[in-house]
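Researcher: Go.
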Amino acid sequence: MDTEDRRVRRTKERLHDALMSLIEERGYDKITVQDLIDRADVGRSTFYSHYETKDDLLISGLHRLSDDIELHMTDDPSANDILPSLGVFRHVADHHELFKAMIGSRGIDLVMHAARDALTERAKSNIDRRSSTSRNAAIPADARAAFIAGSLMAFLTWWLDNDRPHPPDQMAEMFQQLTTSA
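Model: Structure:
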């Protein structure tokens, strides 16, 4: 049983790695299931035993992406901000080609929505922990969280589309200045 679980994990990992490398090389829309199975060196029936479509494979990887971004926010020295962004900018900078393909202006809608939802959830959690006496207390927390998460996504997209004209530290500082009143 344990051996089978390890094989399944390895197969899924190979498919996920194949997807990420192909997204960087070609863009998501140009990838076929055949491309994935060729790159991962697995059979078609193996692919379909785990996923119905390439979208399913992508969605399964989004949980890992959300966890990874959350980890980078937790390690962020600006963790007191509503949405700590320095760790996010640093992580995106380290993998900029992949992120440009996934969340740039020509990015993948599924990734954009999942990332925005994860960021919104994190922002809402931080807003809820803050005092209700903030000057924006009249604005519902979920509306403020959506604004901040959407702003970060738009800012990341701009940064990637413009070939990262500023370092991550400066981008995080600009983002915090722009969103401080939210």
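Model: The CA atoms of residues 24 and 97 lie 6 Å apart.
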